[in-house]
């Protein structure tokens, strides 16, 4: 099985930037899509579709809008663990993730911060690694000290 390459992220700072980018891409900022984006902009962390719906939106509509926003390069989903996928805005570009397998803490890293790790994987195995969809798992500094 191969994963499709990620969409090129659309640069944006706020909801109006996203609305303009959607229009340029031939899409619209519908009311449900706006509500999904408002939830993501208001969040300090990655959210599940259920958290985004928050009883105000139909879950099917949330998933449909998240899928479209991901196709357009506005949102990315990540598989943090055994639970549901979580979603976050791309904004100014891709992010990669590290997850503590003990406490569940998620650390967001810029792609350049993991370039040396990618170089080792490329040298040793010939793979071009990305940690945007499936993050690196290990133990955070706090859990190592415990």
TrEMBL record:
It holds the Pfam family FUR. This is Transcriptional repressor. Coiled coil: none annotated. It comes from the Bacteria. PANTHER family: FERRIC UPTAKE REGULATION PROTEIN (PTHR33202:SF7), ZINC UPTAKE REGULATION PROTEIN (PTHR33202). Keywords: DNA-binding, Repressor, Transcription, Transcription regulation, Zinc. CDD domains: Fur_like (cd07153). Belongs to the Fur family. SUPFAM superfamilies: Winged helix' DNA-binding domain.
């Amino acid at each position: 099985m191969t994963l499709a390459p990620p969409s090129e992220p659309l640069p944006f700072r706020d909801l109006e930037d996203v609305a303009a980018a959607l229009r340029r891409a031939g899409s619209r900022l519908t009311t449900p899509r706006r509500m999904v984006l408002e939830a993501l902009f208001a969040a300090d962390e990655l959210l599940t579709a259920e958290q985004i719906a928050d009883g105000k939106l139909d879950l099917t509509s949330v998933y449909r809008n998240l899928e479209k926003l991901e196709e357009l390069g506005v949102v990315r989903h990540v598989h943090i663990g055994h639970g549901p996928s979580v979603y976050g805005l791309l904004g100014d570009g891709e992010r990669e993730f590290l997850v503590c397998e003990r406490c569940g803490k998620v650390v967001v890293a810029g792609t350049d911060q993991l370039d040396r790790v990618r170089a080792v994987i490329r040298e040793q195995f010939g793979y071009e690694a990305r940690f945007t969809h499936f993050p690196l798992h290990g133990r955070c500094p706090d859990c190592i000290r415990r």
